[in-house]
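dude i think i finally got it to work??
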Amino acid sequence: MAHKKHKFIPRSRAVRIRELILLGLLFVFALITVYVSSSHSSKFGLLSEPIRQNFPAVVTQFEIGVLEQPAFLSLDVQNGNIEEGEQFVAQVEDPRIPPDPLELNAFNTNTGTAIVLEWVKPASSLELFINIYRAENSGVRTRIAEHVEGTTWIDTSVTAEASYTYEVSIATLADEVWYESSGVLKAVVKAEDTINPLPPTDVVIVPDTLDDGTIVLKVEWTQPENATEVNVYRSSIYGNRGSLLGTVQTTEPGEYIDTSVIPNIQYWYTLVSVDAAQNMSSFDFVLPAPGNKNPFDYTQVTGE
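look at this
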């Protein structure tokens, strides 16, 4: 069987031109693809490492350590789909504003003259200081100390039996400007005085006679420094405080004259210190009249 020969038909000039145009379009498309890939290489990773190295590095400088701080802009998209009524949360953070304090405690020193504050700072790359605020008896809040270092501070400007509300915030210095934490911690404490004052010392009791001939007993002592007054008690029974004769302020000399004594009767005197918080001395100093050094050597008052 004889094979049929195919006749070669040369391509027309128009076909060759069309093919050249298509090749040119493909080349242009390839260039565009390379350009787009280089612009979004960090996102899509389309460029190989040798090609990336052909592009110059871009160096960006910041006045503050932004790259060392948490994200400057945080966006929380709850779901991938946007629905009607759905909300999205965004927050702009300034890395210069310090974090909030973690813990605050206020302690009464039981003297009524000082309150001790103790706090816990959060971990931070910033140098943190403390600002302290105080309100007395739910009054106006005022700053009483600022830029305090360390973790403790003592307030010695308190009044006994007053209640105080303390607040602390964290402060930091950046670019010669002080920034303060938005959050504060509170602690409430009362400046109570629960410590008993010391009793009077150097107590002596001596008989005396007034100008009109009245027989008296004079009680003398050294005033205690941490009391406001001294109460003088008298009893005819040892170990019994007896009745209150009078009160002597510690700003006055330590002396009391008992004009109601009866001759030939033995009296026992007790001196009790009292402070501003009405705490009383825990030890009552007792001496038999007329104040012998040996309290068991009883001597009656004869008036002679």
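Residues 40-67, 71-79, 289-304 have pLDDT under 50 and may be disordered.
im so relieved honestly
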